[in-house]
Amino acid sequence: MSDAARYSAPRPWSALILRVLLWFVLIVFAIWFLLPAYVVVGTSLKDLDEIRGGSLLALPHELNFSAWRHAWSEACIGVECTGLKPYFWNSVSMALPGVVVSTLLGALTGYALTKWKFKGANLVFALILFGCFVPFQVVILPMAQTLGKIGITNTVYGLILVHSVYGLAFTTLFFRNYYVTIPDELVRAATIDGAGFFTIFHRIILPLSPPIIVVSVIWQFTQIWNDFLFGASFTTGGAQPITVAMNNLVNTTTGVKQYNVDMAAALITAAPTLLVYIFAGRYFVRGLTAGSVKG
Amino acid sequence: MASLTIKNAVKRYGNVEVLKGVSIDLRDGEFLVLLGASGCGKSTLLNMIAGLEDLTEGEIMIGDRVVNDVHPKDRDIAMVFQSYALYPTMTVGQNIAFGLEMRGVPKAERALRVEQVAKTLRMDHLLDRKPAQLSGGQRQRVAMGRALVRDPEVFLFDEPLSNLDAKLRLEMRTEIKRLHKRLNATMVYVTHDQIEALTLADRIAILKDGEVQQLASPAEIYEHPANMFVAGLVGSPPMNFLDITVEAGEAGPAAWVTLRADGADKPVLLDLSAHTARLDGYVGRKVVMGLRPEMISQGTTDAGQCVQCEIDVTEATGADTLCVLNWNNQEVLARGTSGYTKILEGTMDFTIETERACLFDPESGLRLD
């Protein structure tokens, strides 16, 4: 059958049925995945009476943000009733430097490993890559000792260091694979033009890097923000990141279990990474597949 | 401007010897072309002159300064790369000015020099564009501009025209030639294109397996190739090689050659008396005779020996018509007429200029002198 005939012919019934079936399956799965999110959001907007009285799936009667307010600034975490606010800022002040440091270092190592190849560069890369596969749990003890020696246990700085070091494996991988596609002749030309290692890096290589920087930033931000294990292991009390604080908030219960507050706390904790994905997600995919130099 | 001296340059990667002791002497303002197939070491040699690769042994001098341990930026050289290597995020103007900026030239002077170079290369209207917005020829021009603006002692070109289409390549070739004439600068140019080499060079160095096969002027290389490799590489269409056995003729050495496909005809005795001295001691032995297509021309003239050959196929290129002859099951290219002046078919007269033929030793491949 020619294309023209195929497209102009009326659809047979079987095709229509298949189409309906397809939509049905897609909608069922969409509901399946969206339902928990709906329950979390819905519950966070109800008050306790409503939660007790109504069904789990019922819409809230009104948009009641008191649980959010409570989770943000009043809820008790352990014995401190400060809400998540201070811990949110802990996480921000841990994640931002952690992202910046690991991304910059990753770019620099990736650049050195591809454009200034030294003997054994590939072996060094393989060893760094190995870091991607080392489970978090393995490094906890030696890392705790290291932090103790340096004297930054139980501080945000300690977590920044841990995440920078741990993230380096991934960021190096990203940047190294991206820089491999940049022609070496660019570096040679710049060398003859009189530029050195760092000048070439920041004048020629970095300006070519935004796509992969976006990838690295999203990846690192998600990793660091969502981390629980390092936060729980290396900090206590006031220095904890929000993930640990949220856990403690949920576990600190006096009397009635405040589901609405728990849900709101979970949403506050997850919000930054969600936002990053919503606004930069498409650059993530684009950056992973982008080549560096056109033409 | 400066002379360039390469003394016994050797490059080894582990056990692999890429350059086996290359020595070349360039006088100030000379245009040298390094010609060879890929993997012959010509680009390695160029990179060594540029300082992008170290020498294993030997010495490179620019002017009277040994530059072995001098950083590329201090060698006072400029290089044009095959891929142009333009900085993608900078405008054309910034690309050209980058080298000056790195050398701390004040901004005002930079702008002035960029403008001058842009005018010379007729691209002053492109200065604000990014490389991605340029055509291949324009990018090539920017790459040249980047080299020109620095006004270096030595220009290095690494196959700069091989990414261009045929017409543009011709244009840029002329441009480079004009540039050399105007600047009178020392230039080293790497290519695998023998026409580029012949048209551009003052001298050509032909490399094979890391060794210089011949270093001479284009005319010398064309007329008196040092060996069969050089003879086969240079010239388009390529030289014909015939295995002959030298006989003692009446007037001097001669050789029987069969000029028909089937060999049924009586062979013709080619007179090689012009090569008497050269063939001294070769009587009775095999040698290889190299005849360029233009040494076998259609028609009877008194420039050489006249023979009758059967034309197998003709190839008209417009300016010239080539005849493919079949001599004893070997294809031989001959020059027919210029233009389309005459129909060429069947058996016709050809004149072989045996006097200009090149003779090679079949074992060593060296030309007999």
Automatic annotation (TrEMBL), chain A:
The chain crosses the membrane at residues 20-41, 94-114, 121-144, 156-179, 200-221, 263-285. One of its GO terms (biological process) is transmembrane transport. Residues 88-280 form the ABC transmembrane type-1 domain. Keywords: Membrane, Transmembrane, Transmembrane helix, Transport. It is a multi-pass membrane protein. It is found in: Cell membrane. GO terms for cellular component: plasma membrane. SUPFAM superfamilies: MetI-like (SSF161098). Pfam families: BPD_transp_1 (PF00528). PANTHER family: ABC TRANSPORTER PERMEASE PROTEIN, GLUCOSE IMPORT SYSTEM PERMEASE PROTEIN GLCU. Belongs to the binding-protein-dependent transport system permease family. This is ABC transporter permease subunit. It comes from Parasedimentitalea huanghaiensis. The lineage of its organism: Bacteria, Pseudomonadati, Pseudomonadota, Alphaproteobacteria, Rhodobacterales.
TrEMBL record, chain B:
Pfam families: ABC_tran, OB_MalK. It comes from the Bacteria. Keywords: ATP-binding, Nucleotide-binding, Transport. InterPro entries: AAA+_ATPase, ABC_transporter-like_ATP-bd, ABC_transporter-like_CS, ABC_transpr_MalK-like, ABC_transpr_MalK/UgpC-like, Mo/tungstate-bd_C_term_dom, NA-bd_OB-fold, OB_MalK-like. The gene is ugpC. Belongs to the ABC transporter superfamily. GO terms for biological process: carbohydrate transport. This is sn-glycerol-3-phosphate ABC transporter ATP-binding protein UgpC. One of its GO terms (molecular function) is ATP binding. Residues 4-234 form the ABC transporter domain. GO terms for cellular component: ATP-binding cassette (ABC) transporter complex, substrate-binding subunit-containing. The keyword Flavoprotein does not apply.
